[in-house]
Amino acid sequence: MNKNLVIVESPAKARTIQGYLGKDFLVVSCMGHVRDLPKGNNVIDINNNFEPTYEITPDKKEIIQAIKKQSSAADMVYLASDEDREGEAISWHLKESLNLKEDKYKRIVFTEITKKTILSAIQNPRSIDIDLVNAQQARRVLDRLVGFELSPILWKKIQSGLSAGRVQSVAVRLVVEREREIEKFIPTSAYKISAHFNLEKGKILVAELTDKLKHESEVAEFLNSCIGATFKIKDLSKKMAKKSPAAPFTTSTLQQEAGRKLGFSVLKTMVIAQRLYEAGKISYMRTDSVNLSEEAVQGAKHQIESSFGENYVQIRKYKTKSSGAQEAHEAIRPTDFSTLVAGEDQNGKRLYELIWKRAIASQMADAELEKTTATISISTSPRILVANGEVIKFDGFLRVYLESKDEEDHESEQEVGKILPPLKVGQVLEMSEILGHQTFTRHLPRYTEPTLVKKLEELGIGRPSTYAPTISTIQKRGYVVKESREGVEREYKVYRLVKDKISQSMKKEIVGIEKNKLFPTNIAMIVNDFLVIHFPDITNYSFTANIEQEFDAIASGKVKWQEMMKKFYWPFHKVVEETEKVERTSVSNRSRQIGIDPKTGKMIYAKLGRFGAYIQIGENPQEGSSEKPKFAGLKPGQFIENITLEDALELTKMPRSLGEFEDKPIAVNIGRFGPYILHDKKFVSLPKGEDPYSITPERAEELIIEKRQSDANKILKTFAENPDIRVLNGRYGPYIEAGKKNVRISKDQDPLELTLEECLSLAEKAPEKKRKFFKKKT
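Above: the chain's sequence. Below: its structure in token form.
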């Protein structure tokens, strides 16, 4: 029997560490958290200092039983979960679940999984840091109380099934407010003037006016003044500049850069990084530190010297900007800089390469640039034209890596290295053409997953372990959707001066293309406004950031977690009680009158339903009335709060006729569950991304045929004597459809061999499905 038992979170980590330890050690996995607050409203004793009741989660009971046997047979148990609050809490819960006495266990920590660090951790154990545990407990208890008390309020006042959370509600507010800023934005135009000059050997020099011209009259006036003008190099200035590398990755910056360079979602980045960490290839991936250990710095230095030369080395120490940085972690880096390729698949290799390059570049020399500015005078105008360029004199870290920029940043990678052709002061230039392009101001960009993480970090909201879960949660709950949307065509004017002739033309461009952007849903708008009005603290950026700082204070032992809970909970609970009295009809934007339908004279409403926002023409039917209102779902990007009568009337054009197929009419419509095609009394749902307003008859016919083929493959067996009984093939395997009842078929039964009697017998024995009852809305 093994003398020592080491418990880690994941099987992958266990396999890696087992390879480093001798036969006297057994490394096992607990598969993450083993205890949690169970469901129900009596698991936190609010009146007894917020005492929580924990239970071993159902899926971990067998795991804990197995580990208990192994721990009782071992001389020493090493609790080796991650070195952060969640990891510390896992170790504490393991100790409690396994009933480990103080002399039976040791806590070990490491920020990378290499043989050296694992053996060092075994030789230098410590006790469980109860302050870190309490910080995690405070977050868990507080978030449970917020969700448990806030969500039912949303069910009663807005819609059943909704949820709210301390960090997720702030993230939703950011997306909602950005969308409203965009909605209010009115673009203004100006003209960018660029002059093209012919040089020797076919080279072209492009220079621009330093300021844009606001009015067409100014453009015409300037171009007229340039007719017959002499253009001369008035001044040439050169200055040396340096460009420094970015710091090594933190969790947030890794998520941002993997999104920009690799197109990874925040969750995908963290899943791949976790695999690399557990395989011993990178240091711990949940960190807000930019520091590198001395050993790591020396490893990077040796690799740079051997690959590029001593003149490429420049040792740096980076300081973490965040005042609330958690625990003393390193930045994310390779465990061995001489390992150039790592990862179990292509995505793993790409992320590892990104981490390697960023960490290596952080210890490389500055890039040295020579920036040149050419000032060009115009003999007939006081205005000047300017051409900028830069030459890389020494590439330094640029040889390896350059950080990408977000949309709101004007600088881009492509600007580095723009070279001006040889020029001399006093040189007269031959003008080829001068262009005046009409440009338009742009609204702030919508958030992507990485830029939303960046904003949360800037505001001090959330920590490395919470970014990915928060971004995932607001999408799973239906508050935010990640979508790519097509742009729209826009015309712009171009003025052109060639020799002594000025011409004007209209050109077209596609603007507003959105790729993997975060859009709020109608329910997000309504819930956000409700929370901002009635629970201002929960959605307040500063308040939420202050809560994070209090968690940090608990983690450092400066604040008792129960005292922090008292300060937060009782004022919050009082607001919950007051909000219970709010009338449901007073909640803004749940329903809105838009205007009168010119065809029927009936009122058109925009409303929120269980399946999304929709348009309704006419009133709700009275009891016994056969007249029903007409409905149409809102398009993506349309909101109850601002949809116009014109937009609503466009939506009511459904159902839309698409002609005939097989001598029977085809129509496309939008129902409660989304857009669909109706043909021969059969419904065919439109795939995601198909626009019901523009779908062609040919595409509709393709979808009808595809549905027929799918249905043919679905039906395994029917019975002529009882058409209500069918054997079908579903998403999770074969099953029996008996009227409205679906019955599972066991794996040892051949669905094609089932008789009608066997099907009826199985259906009779199958338990009735529990019905869901919803409380009547008040």
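The first strand starts at residue 4 and ends at 8.
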